Amino acid sequence: MKEQMKNAIKEIYRIASQALSTEQIYSVVLATDDDCGSLYLAFGTEQALEEINQRYQDLEGDFNFRYMYTEYLRTDDDYTEIMNEISRQLFDRMMATNEATYEKHRADTLHTMAEVMYELKQENSIPATVFTYISITDSDVEQLEKSVAIRCNPHHPELDAFLKSWDIT
User: Fold this and answer.
1) DSSP 8-state symbol, 130
2) What are the tens digits of pLDDT across the range 88-127?
3) Helix/strand/coil percentages in the chain, nearest 5
4) Which Pfam families does this chain map to (predicted)?
5) What are the residue boundaries of the structural domains of the chain, listed by start?
C-alpha cells in the first residue's frame, strides 16, 4: 500500500499544483480519521487562507488558521478521485480488524503515512518550500503530528510557527 499511497499523492499534488497555479500552496497535509479507514490530502494556499480569515474576522481572540487543515478550502476531492481506492482498502482493512488487530492496523497506517510524506519531501515530489505533515481528524495526536512535521520540515522557516500553533489554549 505504501507505493500506491505515494504514487497517488504525487499525482494528486501534480494535478492540484496545476489547478492552483494562480495560488501559492504553502502547506500539504495527509489526513485520516481515528480508525484509519479513509485518507485525503488537503492544501493550504495563501489565497484560501485570506478567504478563511475574512470569513472568521468577527471571532474574538487571536486565531491562526494557517495550519488548521480542517478549514483548508482546497482538498484532493477538488481535483481527483485517486485517493478513493486507497480509502476503500483502508476501510476494508479496518473493518476486518478485531480487538487484537485494530491497533496494529492503526499503527501501520500512521507509520506508512508518515514515511510517505517524508519520502515525498526527500525526493522533492513536494517542494521543500511547502510545509507537510500528517493528521488524524478526530483524535488528539499532537505528538505524532509534531514529530512528522519536524521530520518532514526540519529547516522550514514555518516550523516554529506550526509548533507554536499547538499552544493555543
Assistant:
1) S
2) 888 888 899 888 888 898 889 999 999 999 999 999 999 9
3) 50, 15, 35
4) DUF4303
5) 2-167
